[in-house]
Each structure stands twice: as C-alpha cells, then as structure tokens.
Specification:
heterotrimer, A mainly alpha (281), B alpha/beta (281), C mainly alpha (252), A: mainly alpha, B: alpha/beta, Rossmann fold, 6-stranded parallel β-sheet, 55% helix
Amino acid sequence: MEKVAPPALFQNWLSSHIFTPLSGGTFYIALVGSVIFWCLFLFILQSLPSPIRRRLLVVTTFVAGLFYSVEFFWPAEGNRLTGYVEPLGVFLQIMGGFGLGIGIISLCNVHGKAIFRRQPGYYNSIAFFLAFVLMIVASFWQHYVKPDTSMEAVAKQFYSFMFDGLYVPLDSTVFSLLAFFIVSAAYRAFRIRSAEASLMMITAFIVMLGQVPIGMALTNWIPADGPLAGLRLERLTNWILTGLNAAAFRAIIFGAMVGYIAMSLRVWLSLEKGTYFEKEL
Amino acid sequence: MVDLLIRLQHIDRRIIYSLVILSIGIPILIPIDLPVFVSPEAKGLFEAVKTVPEGKLVIIAADWQAGTQGECGPQTRAVIRHLFQTGKRFAIFSIIPIGPELAQKIAEEESKGLGKKYGKDWVNWGFKAGSPLTTLTSLAKNIPGVVKTDINGTPIEKLPAMKNVNDISDVGLIAEFTGSGVFEYYLQRLQGVYGTPLVQGCTAVIAPEQYTYLQSGQLKGLLVGLRGAAEYETLSHVMGEGRRAMTSQSLAHLLVMALIVLGNIGLYASRRRRGASDGQR
Amino acid sequence: MNDHRETQMNQRPNGSAKSQWLTQLALLVVFIGLCAYRIHAEHNVEVWVKCVAALSTLAIISFIYRENRLYRLFEHIFIGAATGFLVFVVWRDSLQGNWWEPLSKDGKWYLILAPLIASMYYTIYSPKHAWMSRLLIGTMFGLYAGQCFQNFAAQIFPQISSSFLPLWKHGDMTMGQVLNNWVFVVTLFAVMTYFFFSIRHERPGIRQTATLGRWLLMIAFGATFGSTVMARFSLFIARMQFLLADWLHVAK
C-alpha cells in the first residue's frame, strides 16, 4: 500500500548500507554506538572556538534552507531531492515531539519555585502540578487499559472527569469571557470623533446586522429579485465582505508576504540582526 | 436631561454584563427559530462536500481548540453529519493537540444515529507534532508513511477506510476548521501545490481575511463562525446548535449596537455641555 | 468617576467581610442544590462530570465580577490539565507510532538520532553549552526559511492572477459585475498605495490615492470589528447553552 517516492540522491545506498533495520545484538550495539558517537560529536562541538562556531551556524542555516529551496526549483522530473522530503518530515516531527520538554520544564520551574519559596498563592501551583499529573495518569491509563475489564470503565470515567469535566470547559470558558470584554470595550472606546470613525462604525453596524436573522428581517420588505435587492442587509453585508473587504485584505496580504519573503531571506542568509542573532556564541 | 444623557457613557459594567447574560440566556430558554440567509460561500462548501469524487477521502483538519468550540464545533459537526449522510469516508487530522479528540467525540455522537462505524466510515489520524509545513509536505507524498497509526494505535493499513489512500491524489477534499492562522499551511503545501480542493470553517474573527482566498478560487467554500454552521444546517435541513443560537446572537448584536449608540450620545451631550460652559465664560 | 468606583470594588470587599462570606456561602449552597437536583434526576457518572464542568465554567465566569481565588485556582488547574494532555497526545499521535514502535519493534536503530539531536534544545539551560541550542534552532530557521519560495508562490500567485479582473463589459457579463470589478480593483490599488512607503505620500496623485486607501481600510476594519463581535458572543453562547441545556436541562 505504501507508495515509494523515486529514490533521491544516494538514498538507495544510504538505506541499504547505513540506515538499515537491525536486530538482536547488532541493534543494541548500533544504539549504544549512536549515543557514544553523539556524545563525542557534542564534545567536539563544544571545543570549537567562537569564530568557528559562528561560521558553523551560518553554514548549517544556509544548507538547511538550501534543501527545500532547491527541491522546489528543481523540476519534478528527475528531482533527486524529493525522496528525502517524507523521511525528513517524519524525523522533524519526532524531534518536535521531544522538544516539548522545554515548555514543561519552564512551567515546572516557575510553579516549583512558587511552592518552594511559599510565594503568595502557592497553593495554585500545587493545583497546577496535581492537575498535570492527574491528566497524564488519566490519559495514559484510559489509552493503555486492557479492554473488557472492570478497570476499563473506571479508567474511562476518570479520563472523562479530567477531560470533559475540567480541561474542555475551562478552555472554552476562558475564551468566552471575551464576550464581556468586547462589549465593555466597544461601549467605552468606540467613540465617533472623525468621519473615518463614522464610516468604520456604519460598516460595523451593517455587518453586525447583516450576519444575524434580525438584520434580514429589517430589510425583508425589499424584493429579493428586484433592482434594489442589493440593499437588503444580508446581501449588502456579503458584498462588503466579498468585495471591499476582500480587496483591502488582499493588499495587506501582499505587503505581509513580501515582508515574509524578505525576512525569510535575511534569516536564511544569516543577515538578520538583533539581540538573539548577535549574541556571543 | 443633559445630565442623564452624559451619564449614558458611564453605565456600570455590572449592568452591562447582566444585560449580556440576559440577551444570550433568554433566547436559549425561549427558543425561536429564525430564518437564516445562506451565503454563497456556505453553498460553495456544501456543494464541494456533495461533489467529492467517489472513492476519494476527505480530510477533516480539526485545527481548533476547546476555546473556539463554540464556533468550530457546530461547523465540524454539520460537515461530518453531511459526510455521513452522503456516505463519504473521511479522516480526522490536526496540527493542534486537542483537535482530533474533540472532532472524534463529534464523529462518535453523529455516527450513532446514522449507523456509521469507526475504521470503516472514518478514521482519526490524530495530532502531528513538529512543524506543520514539513508535516504537510511529507503527508502529501506518503500518507501511510507519515500517519503510521491512528489514535488507537491501530496500523493505518489495517483500517478499511484507508484502503487505496496513498498520497494527496487520493484525497478529494480538505475541510479545514480553525480559529487560528494555520490555514495558510494547507494553502501553501497542499492546495497550492497539488490543487486539492480546499474549504474552510473558521471563527468570525479571522473570517474577513479569508474572503480574499474565496475570490481567487483557492477556497471553494467558507463557513463563518456560528452563522456559518447555521447556514450549513439550513442547507442540510437540520435544526442544530448553529440555528438554535441565532436568536441569542441577534439580541447580543443589538445590545452592542445600542450600547455604542448610548455611549456616543453621552459623548455628544458632554461636548455640548462643555461647549455651553466655554461660551458662558 | 465610574473607574474610581470600579477600582475600589476590586480592592476591597463589597460591603463588610461578613456579608461577603454570606454571599459566597449562599452561592455555594445554590450550586450544591442545583447539582443535587441534577444528580437525583439522573443516576449516572455523566451528570457528575457535568456538575464538575459547570463548576469549572462558573469559576472562570466569576472573574467578570471580580478577580478571586476560585478563578485563580481553576486557571492553574486548566494550565496543568492542558500541559498534561499535551504530553499524552504528543506521545500517542506522534512519538508512539512514528518513533517508539519502529525503533523497538522494527529495528530502526537510526531513529535514536531524533531525541539525541533534540537534546540540543535542552542545552539552553546550561550557559556554557547554550550556543548549541542556537545551532539547532538556526538549522530549523533555515529549513523554514527555505520553504518560503514555495509558500509564497502557492499562496500569492493565484491572488495576483485573480486580481486582474475585466473592467469593461464583454461576453455575458452584467453591468453589476463590471462595477463590482472596478470597486475591487480600485480598492486593491488604493490600499496597496497606502501601504507603499517607498514613495512619499505628499506627491499629488499618491496622496489622494493613499487617502482613499485609508478610507477603504476603515470599511475593512469595520467589517472585522463586526465579525469579531459575532465571534466573541458565539463562544459565550456555547457556554450558556451548556449551563442551561446540558447541565440544568431547563432549555432544549
């Protein structure tokens, strides 16, 4: 079932001589050997002087970017890089999964310090750790519990308690608070002090009315197939959104995408300046 | 009288919040079914789902969190229900961690009434960590290679719904539901490269930016917020969450408009008072 | 005047401490009463879960009245639950099938390189070795930057080609379509001129076009505001539907 892409440059040689599945003792030797090799590699990296480190960073950034750009510009027929796209994507996905720990360590650091130093409200940090551990336990338990056993129902109910009882309603409600804040903000801040603000408000009112049935009801009396049908609120709203609004946002997107290309080129060619990029290596 | 008008711009926020709760709660307690105007973009999405070629898979990209469940949930439910009704198999996938879990619950609820079975009528590929761009790039070339197992740990090739699904050419439609800016990834890596039809259900916040893609034909259809779900339910002749919420939505919009008008009346009254007192001096 | 009163409201209890406690106790009794009523009506686990969900919902909503301890507690529970769920879902959907099983069952030893390379991220915690994390992050930046050409082409080229709309009647086009095309093209051109900062906007012709662009942008922002209001309310409507229909069963 698995469709195999045309072999990329050296792909066949690499998969038959180096990246080939092993079993038994050779498998464990390969594993241990990889770990030792990687430790050695990091040791050598660490011993490099600062100018070499900077050059290495520039080279690796450039070569990494070269892969996808060359793969794109090279015609599909005879493209010797396309075969690496899928294994690279899977590899990066796995790396992304292992990179998750950074965020978790940061959170645990912050809340751990709060508990250790008995900062005000440290019991909230205890609640954080409790919820974190219980969620992991509940999730893994319901995933790995043996089916058709008495523990399966308990595991699923525990998971339901954590997921449907806590996580989902908390996530939904935090976002739903915005309804109150937008009303309050619109009431206090939306003041018409210029002609442009009037235009903005009129458009906002038309769009707000045109997107709900009450707006339809207000202009229901205009014949749907007459010459003034375009003045019906729902149609006027649709025209504003698909015409004027679409054109304005297209212009914004053009500018944003030109900026995206420029920024990408600066990063790819290591031309970007700033606190992070100029930090000592 | 002028004092009263000036005080209109200082209404206590507790009163405003109570009005918000009442304007949304009362229509839920006393439901009224109001007619919904079906926009051309919602019709476009409906037709796109209806005309998915026989034997092709539909990808439901549930890129939404519990925080946007109020909008993306009913949209996803309406489309999944339609897919079940038309007998089109689909795969749930996401680049947001919680998306597949929430969409799976929706699919399980909808499948009960229609006698659909997991594995045969739909599958869940789960969440893929790492860079969405590289994940989608490799997914397009080799789906089973990237999605090795489903969320239950079953190898993908053992699921009947995944029969003859090897790469993006076996996908008839991508229906992406999101509240964040991840839509561009599907455009850049799938629709833009392979021409796979793409439709979207999005929150109303990001909807204005999406109309430009409708105009260019990159998007075949668009559902905007809860209104979009109501439109799709109208087309499917179903009384769902979207349609039930339209009365609450209407009253809430009227409330916001009324408050903005009152605030501006208060502003003008205070300006007149200031102008009058400056004149007296 | 209103802001001052609100500030005072947030800083000290509303009325005496005793009345505050009584109010909180009354709310708790009402909540427990409602839960008891629901549990009595339906004897299953789901109703308990719904009661917990209702408590979570009301705890967060209490923030609109005033910052309080219950809200803070549930906020931290939310962060903990979200992080824990993320760990599970990354293992289940990305690592188990793509890494662990091929490594342990299929003998693909080379997959051990993925966590080894990813370990460079964690060197950020050591000041002496932190530069290695920059090496990995730089490589990632390079990979993403290299994709920019294809991303740009795939996203923008169709946008550019579809911007060239017919501006006079031909074929079976209606006058309405011609007018719409003019509106679209003029709006696009005017807004692009507004954002084009390489030419001074004081020049005649450019100034008027940029001003028109600014006015048309106001229409776009008004539409955005209207849509945003709709979005925010939709999220709260869902919570109210849960509380009134799913939890209390007083609505359909």
